[in-house]
Amino acid sequence: MSAATLKARADFEVIARLIPERASVLDLGCGDGSLLQFLTETRGVTGYGVEIDHENIVSCVRNGVNVIQDDLETGLADIGDAWFDFVILSQTLQAMRHTEVVVDEMLRVGRQGIVTFPNFGFWRNRLAVALGNMPVSENLPYAWYDTPNVHLCTIDDFEAFCETRGIRIRERVVLTRGAPISRLPNFLGQLAVYLFERNTVR
Amino acid sequence: MVVPKVAHFDEPLKLSSGAVLRDYQLVYETYGELNAARSNAVLICHALNASHHVAGWYAADPKNVGWWDNMIGPGKPVDTNRFYVIGVNNIGGCHGSTGPTSIDPSTGKPYGASFPVVTVEDWVAAQARLADLLGIERFGAVMGGSLGAMQALQWTIDQPHRVAHAIAIAAAPKLSTQNIAFNEVARQAIMTDPDFHGGDYYAHDTLPRRGLRIARMIGHITYLSDDAMMEKFGRVLRGGDFSFHFDVDFEIESYLRYQGEKFAEYFDANTYLRITRALDYFDPAKKHDGDLTKAFALAKAKFLVASFTSDWRFSPARAREIVRALLENKLSATYAEINAPHGHDAFLLDDANYLDLVRAYFERLGVEVLA
What we know:
The structure holds 2 protein chains of 2 kinds. Chain A is built from 8 helices and 8 strands, in the order H-H-E-H-E-H-E-E-H-E-H-H-E-E-H-E. By secondary structure, chain A is α/β, with parallel strands linked by helices. In chain A, strand 4 (84-90), helix 5 and strand 5 (110-118) form a beta-alpha-beta unit. Residues 1-8 of chain A have low confidence and may be disordered. Classes of the chains: A alpha/beta, B alpha/beta.
């Protein structure tokens, strides 16, 4: 993988730290497979990507990454309960139409879930909206009319969502310009990474 | 240019049915060169009506191009500049390997009706002996479409240490009831043809052409999608208007009759019965109480499974059953669902997405097995 890709996806390093060696991993919306390739090289994980786009499937094959062509929106019918240690949804949550279905499926087929998403509460985004425009930035690179993002949320929104869905957050890492921050995450954080699991008592 | 070769086997082959082939021959072709490490061999398994002639052409018959020549050859997705590719005609076939048209040494006459029913397992066993003969301990890949894909899957189950990659295109883990029903109609067409003579038509110096034609017509309908057929033939009338008789009015009738007649001249009816039966019987989960996951429990290969969206004969849902079993066994697998309009036949056609996928897979495979 190129250094440029790594830099562009600061969440890769964080995800790698959350995953133990040789874990089994399912990466939903895996794109060209770079995250799985990175995790395979750095953590020795095994697993598969799930991807809908043919060009990305071919890229995964080129990268030596196992990939299953499927539409996440319709669920993961071909995957059984708890087949994976970790199910990852990296910078894809905000583009899912059926957010609840996808998160439920993550915790059905995996023991733990990892999501990363751009924090819409980041101060620059708030400022853009306050000044009257939808934000366009490194983490939200699309104009309002051509964005795949249909469910943007803030860090607070996501945590409230987990609360109501019986999901326990095990770890949270908030990044700004690729580095972790701890102060005022919903205001100062650009990118959120969560490790979560199902509350045993719902 | 390619030249078919023949391998004779004196060691008897015990078949799934219990019958024994005392000796037999396999006709095969090879393309490219086996490397010093003997790691670049790719076995191509054929489907219903195809043969060992997978690529290239014959010097005496340059128009007779291999059935998968768009896929296999120098610089093609399965690049014979890098891989040593083998095509083999299966036992029970009618393209030179021992089958119903061969002479039974115990009678001096063609086997005909007495040739045993063969299965996908039997074919894999015979192919493995050819691999022994060619000095191939382990295939870089075993590849096939449709019934050929079934053989590739069976290889990973029966010979797990001898196949690095299995490429199963337009595959199903077993035939559906509807698939078997179509096969039965085809077989009935053949067996009720008065020229069939209980399978011993060779002695009567005739062929059950009518039965074979109808069998082939039914097959062709199921290999194409409704949309592809509509697109290709529509309701176009040959004479411009209805003729008010039962000869060819519609283009589709002309097409089916042409395909049927062509097929009836070169394909053996007894082989057709046996190959459709092998399709019916293929069901690796059967020995495991219907649990396909258990069937692949000992498999070690890496898999590429691909289906075509418009294939209603071996639909994507069937391919997904295979993928599910592979994933449950934590086997290395990739699954692609190619958006193609042509139906089951798509596996033989030029579709850029499909060919790109196979090319990418073999490029990666080359990095692995040629290292």
